[in-house]
Amino acid sequence: MTQLTPARVLEAGGRLATESARFASYGWMRGTSGNLSEVVTRDPLRLAVTASGLDKGELTPADVAVVDPKGEPVTVEGVAPLRPSAEAGLHARVAAVTGADAVVHVHALNSVLAGHRWPGGVHLRDIETLKGIGRLAHDDEVVFPVISNSQDMGELGDRFEAAYDPRTPAVIVANHGLYTWGTDLVHARHVTECVEWLLAYALATA
Ligand SMILES: [Zn+2]
């Protein structure tokens, strides 16, 4: 069982900083928006999440906070306590419900546009890139759920759980952005890249 050590948290912080910089370079973390997380321990559930209010293109491994299943900060001796993102509670909920070990949240414009256009969910089928999210390239009806936004992470978590389909590793939050998840941060990035591409394709071909 992995232990909640400072070294483990800072290792996760390094991966979160690297992936955040890449997403920022895509223009998906404008301002200080968006956040990434990685499960550090499963029992009890603890996540390393990017700290609040920082430029996601310039994070260091120490720009990390550790949170519990409610998104509340957990003190780890040897790690300077930083304020976690307000959205950390939804990251923890996603990790708990899906079993994913990494969660990505970005404000990619195409996710917001697609959520606006199809508030009941974004439907896709028969397109090769669906294989990148673990679905089939043919005869597989994929729906990206769209849930309404809230500043209350408990409420948003309930909406996520109600809309969750284990076959689809993404949810759009209307007028806000996109949550995706994967077995690790690199997998979660691949999923995010494919979902964003699929949403751009849906918008362009509608
Ligand atoms: Zn957000």
From TrEMBL:
It catalyses: 5-(methylsulfanyl)-D-ribulose 1-phosphate = 5-methylsulfanyl-2,3-dioxopentyl phosphate + H2O. Its cofactor is Zn(2+). InterPro entries: Aldolase_II/adducin_N (IPR001303), Aldolase_II/adducin_N_sf (IPR036409), MethylthioRu-1-P_deHdtase_MtnB (IPR017714). This is Methylthioribulose-1-phosphate dehydratase. SMART domains: Aldolase_II. Keywords: Amino-acid biosynthesis, Lyase, Metal-binding, Methionine biosynthesis, Zinc. It comes from Sphaerisporangium flaviroseum. The gene is mtnB. It is an enzyme of class 4 (lyase).
